[in-house]
Amino acid sequence: MNISTVSPPSQALALVSGAQKASTYETTGGLVTAQFASHNLSLIPPIQEGAIIHDNACGSGTVSRALIYSPNLPSDLKIHATDIDSPFLSALQHEVDQHHWPISVTNQKSESLDFADNTFTHSVTNIAIFFTSSSGLDGAREIYRTLQPGGIAVVNCWAHVTWLLPVRAVHEHIRPGKPFPTPVVAWHDGKHIQKVMRDAGFRKEDMRIEKSDAWAVMKRSLLREWAEKSWAYLGGIAGWLEGDQETWDEAVDKLVELLLVQPGTVAEGD
């Protein structure tokens, strides 16, 4: 929960407002979530005729695009992409219209979907279940309700994120004495995500547990730009505060400094 209601600084607004929001995300977090999406889809059997797939909490359509560009897809494939973030939905709808993709894009909350029971053959929730209410359980229940008997659900969460400690350190550097939120639920060991799926109705014996790694690769010369865009998204985890506009460059420079020495980050060449 944010500790203030101060509006984001102008530098952040320039990067995450309107149509720019999806573009900024795609060049930062999107580099990693796309790898997870591809890995997730590689775990499931080939998609057959009659498939109806839910790209749940779709963002700008990472899973939908991975599906569309997969080989040997059935000609009657139907994808429903849902999210509550209008800029992301608008960006995806533009692509759908441009390429005539078989994707329906709608604004829906993952905890209260409009779809009927047993609608989908597949439901994919990529790096999003932990955003849903009741510590993920409400989202998991809707996945179970809307999935056909025998259908396939793919749900994942973070075990470790390289940027978290640097972001926290920057917060403590520029906002001394201001608390940084601690997650109420620990998702890192995979136990909680399994629990909410079982509590939603999925059987333990039907679950398959996997781990995978993903990373962003960029030139050193572009690292500050990446850090600035990332700070625009992540700097408000603890709530934006008065003075954040004035300390913006200091925060971004500090984030670059910390990322370069953070375990899990490798700096090579230029």
SSE blueprint:
Blueprint (H helix, E strand, L loop, with lengths): L9 H7 L3 H7 L3 H13 L9 E5 L5 H7 L9 E6 L2 H14 L3 E5 L12 E6 L11 H10 E9 L8 H11 L16 H10 L22 H12 L13 H14 L9
Parallel strand pairs: 1-2, 1-4, 2-3, 4-5
Helix pairs in contact: 1-9, 3-4, 6-8, 7-10, 9-10
Describe the structure concisely for a colleague.
The protein has 270 residues and is an alpha/beta fold.
Please bin the fraction of helical residues: 25-40%
Hey, roughly how much beta strand do the residues contain? 5-15%
Mean pLDDT: 92
Name the CATH superfamily classification. Answer: Vaccinia Virus protein VP39
CATH fold title = Rossmann fold
The low-confidence runs, each spanning 5 or more residues with pLDDT under 50, are: none
Q: Terminal Cα separation, in Å?
A: 38 Å
Strand line-up of the largest beta sheet: 3-2-1-4-5
- CATH-scheme architecture: 3-Layer(aba) Sandwich
Number of strands: 5
Q: Indicate the overall shape.
A: globular
CATH class designation: Alpha Beta
Alpha-beta classification? alpha/beta
Order of helices and strands: HHHEHEHEEHEHHHH
The total of helices stands at 10
Rg on CA atoms, Å: 19 Å
Number of domains as seen in the coordinates: 1
Domain Methyltransferase: 55-151
GO biological process, one term: methylation
Keywords: Methyltransferase, Transferase
GO molecular function, one term: methyltransferase activity
